[in-house]
Specification:
InterPro entries: AAA+_ATPase (IPR003593), ABC_transporter-like_ATP-bd (IPR003439), ABC_Transporter_VariousFunc (IPR051782), P-loop_NTPase (IPR027417). The chain has about 260 residues and is an alpha/beta fold. Helices cover about 35% and strands about 25% of the residues.
Amino acid sequence: METSATRPDDGTVPALRLTGLHKVFADNVAVDHVDLVVPRGSFFGLVGPNGAGKTTALSMAVGLLRPDSGRSEVFGVDVWSDPVRAKSLMGVLPDGLAMPERLTGRELLTFIGQLRGIPDDVVAQRSQQLLNVMELNDAERTLVADYSTGMRKKIGLATALLHAPRLLVLDEPFEAVDPVSAAALKSILVRFVSSGGSVVLSSHVMALVEQLCDTVAVMAKGKVVAAGPLGDVRGDNTLEETFVRLVGVDSGDWEELSWLAS
């Protein structure tokens, strides 16, 4: 019997499909039966307030956290029943990625390439190209422990790209990154999508998502409250205005802070 794990990709299946993803921690429902489709070739933005369930949902989507129920498919391949094949199709940059601190950037790429079984000559060639593109050549002998936040994000993205994935899943890739490094990362991601790749990006920064993404989903309290093309989701408003309306942000009671008034 043919399953999603064995069915050939005929070019119509989405880059990522989440079906009924559900996760509970103690008494807290972190992700509540989430359904989501990321079209292939899209730059997909996932937004939501802190605690909305974005990181938990993405962790389950890429195989880092087992869901209580539901499924995740990457180009039709089930992440949990065929993890090796699924993970060969995607590159992942988790929020707060831990890396071997006592390796240089080149050594880290070489190590990741060996773990993935990529031939040594291919690893060497791709590592050099990635270091060039990420503008990390001058720091290739610097230990990761001494990297700035922007440098760590860039080398993390390089490790995610090393095996030539078709989908990138990035959790807060621009958080605490300086403007120069952010510009370099944006350029790389835009080129990746324009060359046929797909990107899923979570962020708190609405202006960034509006600038980069063509498709978005808004999460709140573990649920997807809106999803679709950027223009359809935001309507005649900015994405931030739509986000505030959908999520229902409470600005609090200013009267409690009346002592701040002059």
